[in-house]
Backbone:
């Protein structure tokens, strides 16, 4: 069970101080990058192509910040732009399909660059409105060559004109150095997601040499979706406490111009206002947008998100990244024993060409030599299942999504528009959520 201190909506109801703030709305605040004025709502990156270009573009059109994700962009490009990056890779490595050793499977850096440039530039060309589009780049996608692949991903996104990069899923101690000689190093907005003050301090210390501070820090608490920057003791932590520690540190170091952007469990406009009143300059949100038409999740999967009860949402260790991950417990990926998809994908292969799913899979194959279909319970093939939307990663408050819409006579919940959810965050007061027309 999660302790009540983690339920920000509960503390809003219980703590009279917050009642005063509830008459305020998020639209009373603005986030400033230099002279640029932004509605302080950032839709977080959700890979693989869950935070689509369409979703990010809506956020930008409405004056906020949207994220695309650079996770598995070669396959995303194949689906969107009719390229054949995955087929080319599979053809090259087909001979290795039955081999347990995946160390020889390398990414073609030229293709990674091309896929990134394609997705980023097509998105940026379509951008309208006064907001921004950033890209979420996860360090944990080590791609059997962590340094060279990450360098190409970061630089190609800048080449293609992205407004900003959010460094995610990792400490990123070397990431600024990878782009410090890029002509857009200073003009693009750069930020990092951290889940502790310590992670932020480490990042600042290691990147001090580049003379470039991050423009913003997303502070992601334990109720967020996707991989968590905590151990299995995540429920012991509380977003507000971590955010306050980071504010105090930045003030003491005279670094308060770095924007602090809390994330994880901010479900209503009033939740968001409570953080802005305390010094945050924007919030990052995601879960509420998973049930929008612009989100990349298939419509039937979105119904599963709506239907979920609190008990259906689990944090487990099946991700081969080593980070705990929150997901719906009926995700088809859990217990699936498919053959590792490294010849096509291979994003989790570490610097030595290893992935813990491969080990788990090979162990089960050895234990059940005569079985055609095996099951692997402790790990999952993250690449294949995320690519096929079979791993339903979600935020803690997914079980509240049903209260944000209407249920039709056919038993189906109505999908929302990104604009509706965005505006609900922007204009709602008194901890209310507006239902669609
Ligand atoms: C379905 C889903 C997928 C996500 N995938 C990623 C990801 O690929 N990279 C990342 O940094 N954060 C990811 N996140 C975290 C969000 O970007 C965001 O920080 C967080 O979920 C905000 O909390 P909320 O969902 O309670 O609003 C994901 C969240 C969700 C709900």
Residues:
């Amino acid at each position: 069970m999660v302790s009540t201190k983690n339920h920000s909506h509960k503390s809003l109801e219980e703590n009279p101080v917050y009642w005063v703030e509830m008459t305020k709305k998020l639209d009373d605040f603005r986030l400033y990058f230099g002279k640029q004025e932004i509605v302080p709502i950032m839709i977080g990156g959700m890979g693989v192509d869950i935070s689509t270009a369409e979703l990010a573009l809506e956020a930008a059109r409405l004056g906020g910040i949207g994220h695309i994700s650079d996770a598995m962009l070669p396959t995303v490009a194949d689906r969107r732009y009719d390229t054949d990056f995955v087929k080319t890779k599979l053809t090259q490595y087909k001979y290795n399909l039955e081999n347990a050793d995946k160390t020889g499977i390398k990414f073609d850096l030229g293709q990674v660059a091309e896929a990134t440039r394609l997705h980023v530039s097509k998105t940026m060309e379509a951008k309208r409105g006064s907001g921004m589009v950033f890209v979420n780049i996860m360090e944990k996608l080590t791609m059997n060559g962590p340094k060279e692949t990450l360098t190409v991903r970061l630089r190609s996104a800048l080449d293609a004109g992205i407004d900003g990069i959010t460094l995610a899923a990792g400490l990123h101690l070397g990431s600024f150095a990878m782009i410090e000689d890029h002509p857009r190093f200073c003009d693009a907005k750069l930020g990092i997601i951290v889940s502790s003050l310590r992670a932020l301090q480490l990042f600042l210390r290691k990147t001090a040499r580049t003379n470039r501070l991050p423009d913003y820090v997303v502070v992601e608490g334990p109720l967020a979706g996707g991989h968590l920057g905590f151990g299995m003791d995540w429920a012991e932590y509380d977003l507000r406490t971590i955010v306050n520690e980071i504010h105090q540190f930045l003030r003491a170091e005279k670094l308060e111009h770095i924007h602090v952007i809390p994330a994880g469990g901010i479900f209503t406009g009033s939740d968001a206002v409570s953080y802005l009143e305390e010094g945050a300059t924007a919030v990052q949100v995601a879960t509420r947008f998973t049930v929008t038409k612009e989100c990349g999740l298939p419509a039937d999967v979105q119904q599963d998100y709506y239907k979920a009860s609190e008990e259906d949402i689990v944090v487990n260790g099946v991700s081969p990244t080593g980070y705990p991950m929150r997901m719906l417990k009926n995700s088809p990926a859990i217990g699936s024993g498919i053959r590792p998809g490294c010849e096509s994908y291979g994003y989790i292969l570490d610097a030595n060409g290893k992935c813990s799913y491969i080990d788990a899979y090979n162990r089960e194959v050895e234990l059940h030599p005569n079985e055609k279909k095996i099951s692997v319970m402790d790990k999952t093939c993250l690449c294949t299942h995320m690519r096929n939307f079979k791993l339903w990663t979600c935020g803690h408050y997914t079980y509240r999504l049903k209260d944000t819409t209407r249920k039709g006579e056919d038993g189906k919940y109505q999908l929302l528009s990104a604009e509706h959810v965005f505006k609900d965050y922007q204009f709602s007061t008194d901890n209310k959520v507006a239902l669609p027309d």
Notes: The chain has 15 helices and 15 strands.
